[in-house]
Amino acid sequence: MNCPDLREGLFESFEELVEIEVCLSRAKVPENNKLLRCFQYIKMDSVSVGDYCWNGECTNCQIWYQAQNGEIKSGLACRLYVWPGMVITGLSAALKTDLAD
Ligand code: FES
């Protein structure tokens, strides 16, 4: 991770990091931010230059997550806000590639 908090204006304001689960791995990401920004926080270099429109049109940021009632739903990471303890069970091919180690 390369000091993403130094990139002023990139993230919506946050006081702390929240823990989420991304395909069985735990990660700490900025609260009050959309998931695609959180993924960028995790992998700044690859997500920043990934093939994403950031505005709900390309669907390259599709994810599957556990809703608060336990149901698995799909959504767009550029539209959904993170919440503490969020469990993400699946990622689009683009996100899988960009978030890979
Ligand atoms: S980045 Fe294109 S739909 Fe989310």
If strands are numbered along the chain, what order do they take across the biggest sheet?
Answer: 2-1-5-3-4
How many β-strand runs?
A: 5
Query: Which class in CATH terms?
Result: Alpha Beta
Strand content bin: 25-35%
Helix/strand layout:
Layout: E1 17-22, E2 25-30, H1 35-42, H2 44-48, E3 62-66, E4 72-76, E5 87-91, H3 93-99
Parallel strand pairs: 1-5
Antiparallel strand pairs: 1-2, 3-4, 3-5
The protein binds FE2/S2 (inorganic) cluster.
FE2/S2 (inorganic) cluster is lined by residues 36, 52-54, 56-61, 76, 78.
Keywords summarizing the entry:
101 residues; alpha+beta; Ubiquitin-like (UB roll); five-stranded mixed sheet
In a few lines, what is going on in this structure?
The protein is 20% helix and 27% strand. It contains three helices and five strands.
